[in-house]
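Q: Give me a backbone?
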Amino acid sequence: MRKIPIQDLAAGTKFNRSVYLDKDTVLVSSGQPITQQDLDRLKQFGISFVLTDGELVTERESAKPGAENSNYLDTNLPLSHNDETSARGKYILDKANGNKVEFTALFKDCFELVQKTYRSASEGKYTEIREFRDIAERITDHVKSNPQLPILLFAHSHSGYYLYSHICYATFFSILLGTYLEFSRPKLIDLAIAAIFADMGMVTVPEEVSEKKTALTELDHKTIKRHPVTGYQILTQRLKLKNSLAIVALQHHEAVDGSGYPQKITSNEMEELTRVFMIADQFSAMIATRPYRPAFLPYDAMKLMISVNVNRFDLKMVRLFLNKLGMFPIGSGVLLSDNRTGIVIDSNKDKPLRPVIRITKDVEGNRLRLLEFVDLMIDLNTYIQKAIPFSQIY
């Protein structure tokens, strides 16, 4: 990919291939315009260039059929209705759009720090804990000030090594749940540090086991099930992480009903931070593609967590996670009962099946050139027919 200096870009610039912050982190997808907010944020965070394999898309090419703007965060389109639901929807998308570059840069920094630290640990070299406090504080402050974060999390495209990206996703979802639980800022920062280190033991698991595409053998399972203990030992003995945070690495594969591992403890023996991270860790893992299975849709992941796997988690916490994100989580794609397509942008309290949706395609599957929103708590004749992959929203 070639480097494009930021000063060579203007608001509205489009490329026919995705534009990246680095080789793994997408800033905007193909055909999606770079906004002035994007440019301002890139300069604010000291990012001097972006990467792409694409060519500039001219206005004439943009006007061709099938070349419609696919930016789900574009709020420059005219509103279809001048009502309270439309004002609420536009405000949410404006806020998410304003935080997009900061989130993308923050996720990139988290990934790079995790990658460096875990790779060093696999070679017997260990990082000073204080390096992680800064990223933990930044993640905490970003999540607390950005209620629209789930929209960005589900849309974020990162192609880096699974373990490192999973840790970052699980950390963001942990702080999101901790915020819902009204944890103090110091407690959220501790949670972020614990989450970042929770899978440290995986550095001792051979990649041919952790990334295996076929069924795991009994020996493979035993190897993987050792990682909570080895991780806890590395964190306490080598990195000198305080026990109240390192314990999350030891306990995060336990279950509140005592069916987990390695100690088979129950809920009252688990640390509160562990019970938060367990939910975020499981949800993040389920919505990611793995060598042996495709990614679960966010709806399917949520459904499994509150049904088949419900005995694994703190019931109060998982219910809060559901009520805040929704059964069709914020940021996920849906097909409505009238065959319109959309993306969930907000939830309604205690009504997880009736969120607020931005409509992206009409009943005939044509992309909308207007900003149209529907609140299913107001439009009671419409309901969600099914969840759809993010790739089908446009």
